[in-house]
Amino acid sequence: MEGYGKEILLSRDKIQKRVRELALDISRDYQGKEPILIGILNGVIFFFTDLIRNMTIPVKLDFIRAASYGSGTASSGVIRFSKDVEIDIQGQDVIVVEDIVDTGLTLSKIKESLEKKGPASVKICVLIDKRERRETEITIDYYGFHVEEGFIVGYGLDFNEQYRHLPDIFVLKEKESPT
Ligand code: PRP
Description:
Elements: E1 4-10, H1 12-29, E2 36-41, H2 45-53, E3 60-69, E4 75-83, E5 93-101, H3 105-115, E6 121-130, E7 142-147, E8 151-153, E9 169-174
Parallel strand pairs: 2-3, 2-5, 5-6, 6-7
Antiparallel strand pairs: 1-9, 3-4, 8-9
Helix pairs in contact: 1-2
Bound molecules: 1-O-pyrophosphono-5-O-phosphono-alpha-D-ribofuranose.
1-O-pyrophosphono-5-O-phosphono-alpha-D-ribofuranose binds near residues 69, 101, 105 and 158.
């Protein structure tokens, strides 16, 4: 991406270690239960599969597709749902799994919409809890890392659909223009 460079923020080893810990925490908390994990596409794909593979309890899974960002690095605040959950979640324990929470608008809309379907519980698990632009109060029950600022790419996270495939996580930095 011309005009941007990237600096490593979280190595693949650090990510994998933390994802294993999260999977074990969730498995312990839901011992004897079979929660439904709902991944929010597209950014969540790597985190979701790594998380599930490390769980020690049975789970069910489904996906929602919701997009809040247009192209670029700023949140538009507009959420579009183009795929809703298909499993019946009534009376079930649900864990929403997301790659990143930023303004919090996407997750609060999703939680609100899931709660209308009558689940026994809804908890939220995010890999990256980024707080600088939070606009709504939302409880994050499980998080991998706190990041204060910067635009994050890699391990599923994109900038204009680029960088998703990278196994590590980077911060995009605008290159200084030559004077
Ligand atoms: C990202 C991320 C969350 C949302 C978080 O998704 O995966 O869904 O933005 O932002 P918020 O807390 O400000 O609402 P994006 O819309 O970029 O779609 P993607 O998962 O396909 O990359």
